Amino acid sequence: MKDFSINNQMVKIDKNAKNINVDLTEFFAKVSVNCPTEDAELSINGEQKGVGRWEGMMIPGKYTIEASKDGCHSQTRQIEL
User: Do 43 and 69 form a contact (C-beta atoms < 8 A)?
Assistant: First the structure.
């Protein structure tokens, strides 16, 4: 259940059984970052994530993604999940 938030609810079961619907709420977003500049370093909110490509699960929020390489102009993008 690592990709879902946990919602707890107490349910009373008695002799009159009933169907119970359970909805799982996605809590993470799958994010992929690709930089076409060869060997560009990728960081998210200032934390080094990899070179050229990064993929991972992120919680909702605002993020700054930066690609940088010596001798090139850095590129920065703001995203909100």
Answer: no
Q: Which long-range contacts (CB under 8 A, 24 or more apart) does 30-37 make?
A: 30/55, 30/56, 30/57, 31/55, 31/56, 31/57, 31/58, 31/79, 31/81, 33/65, 33/67, 35/67, 35/75, 37/67, 37/69, 37/72
The H or E element that residue 33 is part of is: strand 29-34
CB 45 within 8 A of CB 76: no
pTM: 0.64
Report the distance separating Cα 77 and Cα 75, nearest Å: 7
Q: Is the CB of residue 36 less than 8 Å from the CB of residue 4?
A: no
The per-residue pLDDT for range 3-29, each reduced to its tens digit, is 555 666 666 667 766 666 766 666 788
Are 35 and 42 in contact by the 8 Å Cβ rule? The answer is yes
